Amino acid sequence: MLQACLNLKKINKRILAAILAACSLLCLCACNTEVENVKGENSLGGYSFSYPETWELLTDGADSVISISDVGGSVPYAVIRFTVHQSGGKTAEEYWNASEKDFKKLYSDVEISKKQSFDFADGTGFEAVMKATIVGFTNLDGQPDKADGKAVYFVRQLVFQKEDRLCVASYMASKDNDDEHSGALNTVKTSFKFIAPKVDKTEDKDVADFNIPVPEGWTLSKSEAYYTLTKGKASITASVFSVKDNATTAKDCWEKVYVPDFKANFADFKLVGQLKEDVKLDGVPAVEAEYTLSTFSGSTYNFRQITAVYYGYVYTVVLTASADDYADCTAGYKAVAEGFSFK
Fold first, then answer.
1. pLDDT tens, 190-224?
2. Among 174, 194, 214, where does a domain finish?
3. Is residue 176 part of a domain?
4. Domain endpoint, select from 194, 212, 230
5. Which of 123, 171, 233, 286 is the S-S candidate for 308 at Cβ 3.0 to 4.6 Å?
């Protein structure tokens, strides 16, 4: 149309100027409709990422959720949930393969269309794309895809790994919304980074002979020989004791003192994985163990413990949490262990 106007011999210059101005305005408006990305950060979980500004970010402890909904906010079009875990010595791919069984148990008709590794800022991750029929979810119009209340959903997962840290980004959207909103997961994929968890620091000269960080969301209490952090029913305790004669190294202390005591008092004491001997506590050689046992009340708890021997004393950092709370508490435990410092 514009070319035809230019070919007219008697075209009015003012009309031509108006046409050109209108075209420029249309181009400008088209450019301004592009959605920009904003940065999200979870200081307790220790990670950051970018996401489209049209999505909403919510943070719950070490976990985060971004979502996009209808105008009223009642019908979610797509959701991405971030959860923090420990690798347990597994790669990102091995971690996902271990959880694949859970998906098949949860969704009997799950179809896995893609599994592949990918590189990100801090290392190598793993990606999987699935489709499953899920009960209770709705489509774009807020109505079930089927009369029985079931809807076909796409589930995509990204597993990010750095050393023993894992963060899983789980995306879910109905088949009506997947094409439009799955690009948000690619934005997360290319921008995700692990960061140092934001913590405060204890500085009390009258308590123990060491300091520990106080991660966000944890409550501190103290005595002469230890600090205790609590979050709900979970706890992290940093303590100091005198060394026994037969335990002059961290490994000896664990194997000759702690393990025999646990076995004598808790019949169901069970070590999870292997004892780690390549860890340090403020530069001092240490060992780390994960284990489970039932308390006298009958409840089963998960534990993770670092043990070090320093100038004739045993120093420990111990996480105690139920199986349901354990994964959410490991970021706080790691922050305490990494930030532990002798006075």
1. 999 998 766 555 555 555 688 898 888 888 887 66
2. 194
3. yes
4. 194
5. 286
